[in-house]
Write a structure and sequence with these properties.
This protein is an alpha/beta fold. It has a single domain, classed as UDP-N-acetylmuramoyl-L-alanine:D-glutamate ligase. Helix content is 37%, strand content 23%. It is built from 10 helices and 13 strands. The strands form 3 sheets. Strands 5-4-1-8-9-10 form a 6-stranded parallel sheet, with helices on both faces. The chain has a 4-stranded mixed sheet with strand order 3-2-6-7. Strand 9, helix 5 and strand 10 form a beta-alpha-beta unit.
Protein backbone atom coordinates (compact mmCIF):
# COMPACT_ATOMS: atom_id res chain seq x y z
CA UNK A 1 0.00 0.00 0.00
CA UNK A 2 1.11 3.61 -0.55
CA UNK A 3 3.50 5.49 1.69
CA UNK A 4 2.08 8.99 2.15
CA UNK A 5 3.27 12.12 3.93
CA UNK A 6 0.64 14.72 4.82
CA UNK A 7 2.04 18.18 5.58
CA UNK A 8 -0.81 20.26 6.93
CA UNK A 9 -3.12 21.35 9.69
CA UNK A 10 -4.39 19.76 12.87
CA UNK A 11 -7.48 21.33 14.47
CA UNK A 12 -9.87 20.65 17.27
CA UNK A 13 -13.36 20.92 15.73
CA UNK A 14 -15.98 22.48 18.01
CA UNK A 15 -19.26 21.45 16.40
CA UNK A 16 -22.86 22.39 17.13
CA UNK A 17 -25.98 21.42 15.23
CA UNK A 18 -28.56 24.13 14.54
CA UNK A 19 -31.82 24.24 12.58
CA UNK A 20 -30.21 26.74 10.19
CA UNK A 21 -27.34 29.21 9.99
CA UNK A 22 -27.93 32.39 12.04
CA UNK A 23 -28.38 35.70 10.27
CA UNK A 24 -25.96 38.57 11.06
CA UNK A 25 -26.67 39.79 14.59
CA UNK A 26 -29.01 36.87 15.33
CA UNK A 27 -28.71 34.33 18.14
CA UNK A 28 -30.36 30.93 17.70
CA UNK A 29 -30.46 27.86 19.91
CA UNK A 30 -28.28 24.91 18.94
CA UNK A 31 -27.79 21.42 20.26
CA UNK A 32 -25.05 20.16 22.58
CA UNK A 33 -21.49 21.23 21.71
CA UNK A 34 -19.27 18.36 20.54
CA UNK A 35 -15.49 18.30 20.07
CA UNK A 36 -13.94 16.22 17.28
CA UNK A 37 -10.41 15.84 15.91
CA UNK A 38 -10.11 17.73 12.62
CA UNK A 39 -8.01 19.99 10.42
CA UNK A 40 -7.74 19.34 6.70
CA UNK A 41 -4.27 17.84 7.01
CA UNK A 42 -5.15 15.49 9.86
CA UNK A 43 -8.47 14.58 8.23
CA UNK A 44 -6.75 13.54 5.02
CA UNK A 45 -4.07 11.65 6.95
CA UNK A 46 -6.68 9.65 8.85
CA UNK A 47 -8.73 9.12 5.67
CA UNK A 48 -5.72 7.58 3.90
CA UNK A 49 -4.64 5.53 6.93
CA UNK A 50 -8.09 3.98 7.34
CA UNK A 51 -7.88 2.84 3.73
CA UNK A 52 -4.64 0.98 4.44
CA UNK A 53 -1.91 3.46 3.51
CA UNK A 54 1.23 4.00 5.59
CA UNK A 55 0.77 7.63 6.60
CA UNK A 56 2.98 10.16 8.38
CA UNK A 57 1.72 13.55 9.55
CA UNK A 58 3.84 16.73 9.57
CA UNK A 59 2.57 19.81 11.39
CA UNK A 60 2.30 21.53 14.76
CA UNK A 61 -0.04 21.52 17.75
CA UNK A 62 0.02 23.48 21.00
CA UNK A 63 1.16 22.27 24.39
CA UNK A 64 -2.45 22.21 25.53
CA UNK A 65 -5.11 19.55 26.04
CA UNK A 66 -6.34 19.89 22.46
CA UNK A 67 -2.82 19.07 21.28
CA UNK A 68 -2.77 15.89 23.37
CA UNK A 69 -6.22 15.00 22.06
CA UNK A 70 -5.20 15.37 18.41
CA UNK A 71 -1.94 13.45 18.73
CA UNK A 72 -3.63 10.59 20.60
CA UNK A 73 -6.27 10.40 17.89
CA UNK A 74 -3.73 10.24 15.04
CA UNK A 75 -1.80 7.51 16.78
CA UNK A 76 -4.97 5.50 17.42
CA UNK A 77 -5.61 5.68 13.65
CA UNK A 78 -2.12 4.35 12.84
CA UNK A 79 -0.77 7.70 11.65
CA UNK A 80 2.91 8.30 12.45
CA UNK A 81 3.25 11.56 14.43
CA UNK A 82 7.04 11.85 14.75
CA UNK A 83 6.99 14.94 12.50
CA UNK A 84 4.29 16.74 14.53
CA UNK A 85 5.91 19.30 16.82
CA UNK A 86 4.54 20.90 19.99
CA UNK A 87 4.42 24.70 19.88
CA UNK A 88 3.87 27.46 22.45
CA UNK A 89 0.96 28.73 20.34
CA UNK A 90 -2.49 27.30 21.00
CA UNK A 91 -3.67 24.31 19.02
CA UNK A 92 -5.63 25.20 15.89
CA UNK A 93 -9.40 25.15 16.25
CA UNK A 94 -12.45 25.28 13.99
CA UNK A 95 -15.89 26.49 15.00
CA UNK A 96 -18.44 24.56 12.93
CA UNK A 97 -22.19 25.05 12.67
CA UNK A 98 -24.05 22.18 10.98
CA UNK A 99 -27.51 23.04 9.64
CA UNK A 100 -30.46 20.63 9.46
CA UNK A 101 -29.77 19.85 5.79
CA UNK A 102 -26.20 18.73 6.60
CA UNK A 103 -24.47 21.79 5.17
CA UNK A 104 -21.85 23.45 7.35
CA UNK A 105 -20.36 26.87 8.06
CA UNK A 106 -16.81 27.01 9.45
CA UNK A 107 -14.52 29.59 11.08
CA UNK A 108 -10.90 28.48 11.61
CA UNK A 109 -8.39 29.78 14.17
CA UNK A 110 -4.97 28.65 12.82
CA UNK A 111 -3.02 28.67 16.10
CA UNK A 112 0.06 26.44 15.88
CA UNK A 113 -0.73 25.60 12.24
CA UNK A 114 0.49 29.06 11.33
CA UNK A 115 3.89 28.31 12.86
CA UNK A 116 4.76 25.38 10.58
CA UNK A 117 8.03 26.33 8.83
CA UNK A 118 10.16 25.38 5.85
CA UNK A 119 12.67 23.95 8.31
CA UNK A 120 9.98 21.54 9.51
CA UNK A 121 9.51 20.01 6.06
CA UNK A 122 13.25 19.98 5.37
CA UNK A 123 13.65 17.57 8.30
CA UNK A 124 11.36 15.04 6.59
CA UNK A 125 12.67 12.17 4.45
CA UNK A 126 11.07 12.07 1.00
CA UNK A 127 13.13 9.26 -0.52
CA UNK A 128 10.78 6.42 0.48
CA UNK A 129 7.48 8.19 -0.18
CA UNK A 130 4.95 7.53 -2.92
CA UNK A 131 2.91 10.68 -2.38
CA UNK A 132 2.82 14.06 -0.65
CA UNK A 133 -0.57 15.47 0.33
CA UNK A 134 -0.85 19.25 0.83
CA UNK A 135 -3.52 21.82 1.70
CA UNK A 136 -3.45 25.56 2.47
CA UNK A 137 -4.12 25.66 6.23
CA UNK A 138 -0.38 26.07 6.84
CA UNK A 139 1.71 28.93 5.36
CA UNK A 140 1.85 28.88 1.55
CA UNK A 141 5.69 29.22 1.38
CA UNK A 142 5.92 26.04 3.47
CA UNK A 143 3.52 24.25 1.14
CA UNK A 144 5.64 25.29 -1.84
CA UNK A 145 8.87 24.16 -0.16
CA UNK A 146 7.36 20.75 0.64
CA UNK A 147 6.22 20.37 -2.98
CA UNK A 148 9.69 21.30 -4.25
CA UNK A 149 11.35 18.68 -2.03
CA UNK A 150 8.85 16.06 -3.17
CA UNK A 151 9.49 16.86 -6.82
CA UNK A 152 13.26 16.68 -6.30
CA UNK A 153 12.79 13.16 -4.94
CA UNK A 154 10.40 11.98 -7.66
CA UNK A 155 7.40 11.95 -5.31
CA UNK A 156 3.92 12.69 -6.66
CA UNK A 157 2.12 15.71 -5.17
CA UNK A 158 -1.57 16.34 -4.53
CA UNK A 159 -2.57 19.89 -3.57
CA UNK A 160 -5.99 20.59 -2.14
CA UNK A 161 -6.09 24.42 -2.50
CA UNK A 162 -8.28 24.99 0.55
CA UNK A 163 -9.02 27.41 1.97
CA UNK A 164 -8.69 29.15 -1.40
CA UNK A 165 -6.16 31.96 -1.72
CA UNK A 166 -3.90 33.37 -4.45
CA UNK A 167 -1.24 30.84 -5.47
CA UNK A 168 2.13 31.35 -7.17
CA UNK A 169 2.34 29.80 -10.63
CA UNK A 170 5.17 27.54 -9.45
CA UNK A 171 2.90 25.88 -6.91
CA UNK A 172 0.07 25.53 -9.43
CA UNK A 173 2.44 23.83 -11.88
CA UNK A 174 4.42 21.63 -9.50
CA UNK A 175 1.47 19.57 -8.21
CA UNK A 176 0.52 16.44 -10.13
CA UNK A 177 -3.09 17.00 -9.07
CA UNK A 178 -4.98 20.12 -7.96
CA UNK A 179 -8.23 19.17 -6.20
CA UNK A 180 -10.46 22.21 -5.47
CA UNK A 181 -14.20 22.30 -4.91
CA UNK A 182 -16.45 24.65 -6.91
CA UNK A 183 -16.05 27.58 -4.49
CA UNK A 184 -12.28 27.20 -4.32
CA UNK A 185 -11.98 26.91 -8.09
CA UNK A 186 -14.05 30.08 -8.48
CA UNK A 187 -11.86 32.00 -6.02
CA UNK A 188 -8.65 30.72 -7.60
CA UNK A 189 -9.62 31.75 -11.12
CA UNK A 190 -11.95 34.71 -10.61
CA UNK A 191 -14.60 32.89 -12.65
CA UNK A 192 -18.18 32.07 -11.68
CA UNK A 193 -18.32 28.27 -11.29
CA UNK A 194 -21.94 27.13 -11.24
CA UNK A 195 -22.15 24.01 -13.44
CA UNK A 196 -20.05 21.49 -15.37
CA UNK A 197 -19.43 23.82 -18.28
CA UNK A 198 -18.20 26.71 -16.15
CA UNK A 199 -16.13 24.31 -14.00
CA UNK A 200 -14.40 23.04 -17.14
CA UNK A 201 -13.69 26.58 -18.35
CA UNK A 202 -12.24 27.58 -14.97
CA UNK A 203 -10.13 24.42 -14.78
CA UNK A 204 -8.69 25.17 -18.22
CA UNK A 205 -7.62 28.57 -16.93
CA UNK A 206 -5.51 26.72 -14.34
CA UNK A 207 -4.12 24.48 -17.11
CA UNK A 208 -3.01 27.65 -18.87
CA UNK A 209 -1.05 28.57 -15.72
CA UNK A 210 0.80 25.26 -15.84
CA UNK A 211 -1.46 22.94 -13.84
CA UNK A 212 -1.13 19.29 -14.86
CA UNK A 213 -4.43 17.71 -13.80
CA UNK A 214 -7.40 19.32 -12.04
CA UNK A 215 -10.11 17.35 -10.26
CA UNK A 216 -13.04 19.56 -9.28
CA UNK A 217 -15.19 18.09 -6.51
CA UNK A 218 -18.83 18.99 -7.13
CA UNK A 219 -20.66 17.62 -4.07
CA UNK A 220 -23.78 15.76 -5.11
CA UNK A 221 -22.78 16.20 -8.77
CA UNK A 222 -19.65 14.08 -8.41
CA UNK A 223 -16.31 15.27 -9.78
CA UNK A 224 -14.88 16.71 -12.99
CA UNK A 225 -11.47 15.50 -14.22
CA UNK A 226 -9.70 17.97 -16.54
CA UNK A 227 -6.25 17.75 -18.11
CA UNK A 228 -4.75 18.74 -21.47
CA UNK A 229 -6.06 15.55 -23.10
CA UNK A 230 -9.57 15.10 -21.71
CA UNK A 231 -12.49 16.36 -19.65
CA UNK A 232 -14.44 13.63 -17.86
CA UNK A 233 -17.38 13.86 -15.49
CA UNK A 234 -17.60 11.14 -12.81
CA UNK A 235 -20.92 10.70 -11.03
CA UNK A 236 -21.10 10.27 -7.29
CA UNK A 237 -23.46 8.13 -5.19
CA UNK A 238 -26.82 9.12 -3.69
CA UNK A 239 -26.87 8.84 0.11
CA UNK A 240 -28.89 10.28 2.99
CA UNK A 241 -26.79 13.28 4.04
CA UNK A 242 -26.21 13.80 7.76
CA UNK A 243 -23.15 16.09 7.75
CA UNK A 244 -20.94 17.16 4.83
CA UNK A 245 -17.97 18.07 7.06
CA UNK A 246 -14.80 16.31 5.81
CA UNK A 247 -16.50 14.81 2.75
CA UNK A 248 -13.91 16.54 0.58
CA UNK A 249 -11.10 15.23 2.79
CA UNK A 250 -12.55 11.71 2.52
CA UNK A 251 -12.59 12.08 -1.27
CA UNK A 252 -8.97 13.21 -1.38
CA UNK A 253 -7.76 10.46 0.94
CA UNK A 254 -9.63 7.87 -1.09
CA UNK A 255 -8.43 9.21 -4.43
CA UNK A 256 -4.81 9.40 -3.23
CA UNK A 257 -4.67 5.84 -1.92
CA UNK A 258 -6.48 4.29 -4.88
CA UNK A 259 -4.52 6.21 -7.51
CA UNK A 260 -1.15 5.24 -6.04
CA UNK A 261 -2.31 1.66 -5.57
CA UNK A 262 -3.30 1.43 -9.24
CA UNK A 263 -0.40 3.38 -10.77
CA UNK A 264 2.55 2.66 -8.45
CA UNK A 265 5.71 2.01 -10.42
CA UNK A 266 4.28 3.17 -13.74
CA UNK A 267 6.22 5.73 -15.77
CA UNK A 268 4.68 8.94 -17.16
CA UNK A 269 2.63 8.27 -20.32
CA UNK A 270 4.83 8.10 -23.42
CA UNK A 271 2.21 7.46 -26.08
CA UNK A 272 -1.53 7.52 -26.69
CA UNK A 273 -2.11 4.00 -25.35
CA UNK A 274 -0.19 4.62 -22.13
CA UNK A 275 -1.99 7.94 -21.70
CA UNK A 276 -5.37 6.21 -22.08
CA UNK A 277 -4.40 3.66 -19.42
CA UNK A 278 -3.14 6.41 -17.10
CA UNK A 279 -6.34 8.42 -17.55
CA UNK A 280 -8.42 5.34 -16.81
CA UNK A 281 -6.48 4.80 -13.59
CA UNK A 282 -7.26 8.36 -12.57
CA UNK A 283 -10.96 7.97 -13.40
CA UNK A 284 -11.19 4.79 -11.32
CA UNK A 285 -9.47 6.50 -8.43
CA UNK A 286 -11.87 9.47 -8.71
CA UNK A 287 -14.83 7.10 -8.53
CA UNK A 288 -13.32 5.46 -5.45
CA UNK A 289 -12.86 8.92 -3.91
CA UNK A 290 -16.51 9.73 -4.66
CA UNK A 291 -17.55 6.62 -2.73
CA UNK A 292 -15.42 7.71 0.25
CA UNK A 293 -16.90 11.22 0.17
CA UNK A 294 -20.46 9.90 -0.06
CA UNK A 295 -19.95 7.58 2.92
CA UNK A 296 -18.48 10.43 4.97
CA UNK A 297 -21.73 12.40 4.47
CA UNK A 298 -23.73 9.67 6.23
CA UNK A 299 -22.12 10.24 9.66
CA UNK A 300 -21.71 13.20 11.98
CA UNK A 301 -18.32 14.83 12.61
CA UNK A 302 -15.13 15.08 10.58
CA UNK A 303 -12.82 12.20 11.37
CA UNK A 304 -15.51 9.96 12.91
CA UNK A 305 -17.20 9.93 9.49
CA UNK A 306 -14.16 8.78 7.49
CA UNK A 307 -14.68 5.24 6.15
CA UNK A 308 -12.26 2.30 6.21
CA UNK A 309 -11.42 0.15 3.19
CA UNK A 310 -13.87 -2.62 4.12
CA UNK A 311 -16.74 -0.11 4.31
CA UNK A 312 -15.84 1.39 0.93
CA UNK A 313 -15.51 -2.00 -0.77
CA UNK A 314 -18.86 -3.14 0.64
CA UNK A 315 -20.48 0.14 -0.45
CA UNK A 316 -19.11 -0.20 -4.00
CA UNK A 317 -20.11 -3.87 -4.26
CA UNK A 318 -23.73 -2.88 -3.64
CA UNK A 319 -23.55 -0.45 -6.58
Amino acid sequence: MPSILVAGSLNADLVVRAPRFPQPGETIRGEELQVFPGGKGANQAVAAARLGAQVSMLGRVGRDNFGDFLLDNLQSNNVDTQLVQRDDASTGAAIIVVAADGQNSIVVSPGANGKVSAADVERASFSTLDLLLLQLEIPTPVVLRAAQLARQNGVRVILNPAPAQPLPDELVAIADFLIPNETELSLLTGMDVRDLSSAEAAAKRLLARGAQTIIVTLGSSGALLVDKHTCTHVDTFNVDVVDTTAAGDAFIGGFAVEFIRRSKGSLPPANALENAIYTRQIEQAVRYGCACGALACTKFGAQPSLPNRAEVEAFLSRR
